[in-house]
Each structure stands twice: as structure tokens, then as C-alpha cells.
Design goal:
Layout (H helix, E strand, L loop, with lengths): L1 H10 L37 E4 L3 H7 L6 E3 L5 H10 L1
Antiparallel strand pairs: 1-2
Length: 87
């Protein structure tokens, strides 16, 4: 049992390992919060059309000027139409 205690004590030794930074101890200084940025007027584009759908059936449809696309689940017919026309 004494051997196990010696091995256990060696494993819990707090010497820093190479390549790893020691964890910083918490201090009593309060951290300043970052200024908040308002994103009300910023519009981040989210595309409804992900990519064209490539299959044998889609190739046949393209001969009659019909195309297939993979779209997101929340996309509707009008938003997909507007996006395709804009591209």
C-alpha cells in the first residue's frame, strides 16, 4: 500500500508540463464587460437555396428548362424564386 501512495502523490504533483500553460487563479478584480453591439439594423444574408440537385431526373428536367435545387426546410416558393432570379 505504501507504494501506491507514493505513485499517487507523484501523479498529483503540480509541476507544469511542457507545452501546457498553468491555469490562472481567480482574482478579486472584477472584469469589465465588453460594450454591446446593436444588431437590429444589420441584416445577415441567409440563403434558402443551398445547392443544385444533381440526379438523373434533374438532368432530364433541365432539357425542358426545369431545374431542381436543394433548399432549406423553412424556405417557401416565393423566397426561392426571388433568390434564383437575383443570382
Amino acid at each position: 500500500m505504501a507504494i501506491l501512495k507514493i505513485l499517487k502523490n507523484k501523479k498529483t504533483d503540480k509541476t507544469p508540463l511542457k507545452g501546457k500553460k498553468p491555469k490562472a487563479e481567480p482574482t478579486s478584480v472584477t472584469k469589465q464587460s465588453k460594450p454591446s453591439v446593436k444588431t437590429d439594423n444589420i441584416k445577415i444574408p441567409s440563403y434558402d437555396v443551398e445547392r443544385p440537385w444533381i440526379s438523373e431526373k434533374a438532368a432530364i428536367m433541365s432539357s425542358i428548362n426545369q431545374y431542381a435545387f436543394k433548399v432549406r426546410g423553412n424556405a417557401n416558393k416565393n423566397s426561392v424564386k426571388k433568390e434564383i432570379e437575383a443570382r
